[in-house]
Amino acid sequence: MPSFKIKVKWGKEIFQDVEADTDEEPLVFKAQLFALTGVQPERQKVMLKGAILTDSSWDKVKLRDGAMVLMMGTKDEDMLVQPVEKTKFIEDMDERELSKAMDMPAGLQNLGNTCYMNATVQCLKTVPELRTALTRFGGNVSLGGGQDADNLTAALRDLYTTMDKGNTVPPIIMLQVLHNAFPRFAERGEGGGYQQQDANECWVEMLRLLQAKAPSTESSTKASAVEQFLGIECSSETKCAEAEGEEPSKSVEKFLQFSCYIDKDVKYLHTGLKNRLSENIEKHSPSLGRDAQYIKSMAITRLPGYITIQMVRFHFKQKEAVNAKVLKDVKFPVMLDMFEMCSTEMQDRLRPARTQFKEYEDWLVYQASTVKGKGKTEALRAEREAQDGEGHEDWWFSEDVGSSNSGYYILQAVLTHKGRSSNSGHYVGWVRQKGDTWLKCDDDEVSPIHEEDVLKLSGGGDWHTAYLLVYGPRKLPKVRGQKEAGSDVTEDMQTS
């Protein structure tokens, strides 16, 4: 069946040229109406000449171009308010009630093994500059055709706008766009439902399309906001280990995420990241006329403001034809320092901002130990609170807005997997809300947790295990102790 452009009358409003693709389930069309009106699909009554559209079939509704469809339904904010309930205390609330009381952000409905997409969407949402870039994109979703990059960029923009209203959202259009762009994500199992997919593949493919359409800021030389705020650049040198006289090959490599390879010696994230910078490979040697061993060395020459790290936890087992999981416990920090992974030239560029951070840390410790008597723990808490305040120094180089000028990062999102294979199990997004309070985004259930619980997601068993880590810029407050010229505190620091 074809695609039609129709009119939709809802109350006093008439929406022109609404696209209805009868090859898709009616629920997809209702999701479009939800985006236009704010009326949840389950509360919509869609009619044409007395025939009512069901969620599963177009049989009773015969569309044609220009047809006027009547929709009835009330959006959330216009629903009648329930009578005032008896006061309920926090300690008596279950997780769902607690989420509502604490004004939790919107969750995403699982549409059948779509937790991989929901977790990806929630973690990407923690990059505010990317969200701002999406609002500058002027395109619209066209389920009947159009470019995949246009459709996905517009769909994600519209989904975030809907999520900002605070209610659970069925991401039907987002899923349909994802399926159109990547048909493998639409594969179905023996029971007819969607098969589970790899969340990292979803992350990579979504960023690739966003890279083509999400605009960078006017002051940036980067082609897109994705490159500007998430792009890593490395210098690479490949040298033959068997022929010292052979000239090494040099190149520049660009990534949108940094990989942490896990082996028996990797217990901490920092070790795995350093191992990524050196590897042995085998390839043809022109000087020896045969395959030989080469050593490939890399060093970071450009750090983005937001760095994504993939914990390489899956490897393909040929015999079972499955991506088996590495369960090893690998600890990751709240504060990440990428200085050692950078080239010498890059390290020199990072030092001025790092010196300012060191002075700030010294002042915080001094304040905590003399004024409050609690020392470094209290100082760390004070800095975390300052991260959420307003008025920070630029965390980028002036000639490269969106980069990191210090190499310091703060953990802001974790995407986890629970299970033994990337194509089974369950994915969840964990995002930092404020201070040491985090949110567990488990599809449509969003609940508050403590940062200590997030750090337990490091692996070692069948529990939720970190698969993707998203670190954001560590921010230096503009107003800090060492700028208080003439104060007693500053003078004491200089003379001590």
| Number of contiguous helices | 13
Strand content: 25-35%
Helix % is 25-40%
Average residue pLDDT: 87
* N-end to C-end Cα span: 81 Å
Strand count, sense and closure of the main sheet? Answer: 8 strands, mixed
Please give the number of β-strands: 19
User: What are the segments in which pLDDT stays under 50 over at least 5 consecutive residues?
Assistant: 483-496
Task: Work out the radius of gyration.
Answer: 26 Å
Can you give keywords for this protein?
496 residues; five-stranded mixed sheet; 13 helices; 26% strand; globular
Give a structural overview.
The protein is α+β, with helices and mostly antiparallel strands and 496 residues long. Helices cover 29% and strands 26% of the residues. It has helices spanning 26-37, 95-101, 115-124, 128-135, 148-163, 172-181, 199-213, 225-230, 269-275, 344-372, 376-387, 451-454, 488-495, and strands at 3-10, 13-21, 45-48, 51-52, 68-72, 232-240, 249-255, 258-261, 278-285, 290-302, 307-312, 314-317, 322-325, 335-337, 408-418, 426-434, 437-442, 445-450, 465-473. Strands 8, 11, 14, 15, 16, 17, 18 and 19 form an eight-stranded mixed sheet that branches. It has a five-stranded mixed sheet with strand order 2-1-5-3-4, with helices on one face. It has a four-stranded antiparallel sheet with strand order 7-6-10-9, with no helix packed on it. Strand 1 and strand 2 form a beta hairpin. Helix 3 crosses helix 7.
